[in-house]
Amino acid sequence: MRVLEARGLTKTYQEGSVPVPAVIDVSLSAEAGEAIAIMGPSGSGKTTLLSMLGCILRPSAGTVAIAERPVWTLTERDLPYFRRRWVGFIFQSFNLFAALTAQENVEVVLNLKGVQGDSARESARQLLDAVGLTHRAAFLPRDLSGGEKQRVSIARALAGDPPLMLADEPTANLDSKNGQHVIELLVSSTRSKQRALIIVTHDQRVIPYVDQIFNINDGRMVI
Predict the structure, then answer these.
(1) pTM of the predicted model, to two decimals?
(2) pLDDT tens-digit map of 55-72
(3) Torsions phi, psi of 202, nearest 5?
(4) Structural domains in the chain plus CATH codes
(5) Least buried of 26, 75, 95, 116, by fewest C-beta within 10 Å?
(6) How far is the first Cα of the chain from the last one, in angstroms, to the nearest whole number?
(7) What is the share, in percent, of the chain residues with pLDDT greater than 70?
């Protein structure tokens, strides 16, 4: 099953009267069970591309289809529901709710996906256990290290088993041991759950685990 197909994705910003291209005519696809890495220097357009693939940023041109559904034909009302159902996004900046504990940060995503009560609490505990954070479940984000916040964001993205996982530098704030664990967790869940995984990263440790590597520079895919 083809989970994701993007064709001709382009994003251009305006700086005054000057158009500034961030992503230029990028096409890629991802099948169920496939892990893909997108690599490139800072400022090359990786995060912009990932945001378009994840239905967060509307492209200037091009198409994105998830499970054969053209994303950008959806109404603004329907798009958030579709995104919650189909996409798990691991943000480099964590995007945790400051007033909620680690467990509550995972639970709230499950609640949005229709999982409530004891089922949500148990699923959240299992997800935190999978990323090695059971002992920090009751801590607020302010009391967690950068690496722990990143692992909470990974657990949250896995909540509800989304068919498409997008990860923006998921190991950037982790030491070698935890970084390796996170890579193995993301890729193994991709295989076992038959989801698609796209990782934007500088981390060379990802390379042996993925099926394809795309390089991007100055907004364009390069060979």
Answers:
(1) 0.91
(2) 999 999 999 999 999 998
(3) -105, -5
(4) 2-222 (3.40.50.300)
(5) 75
(6) 26
(7) 100
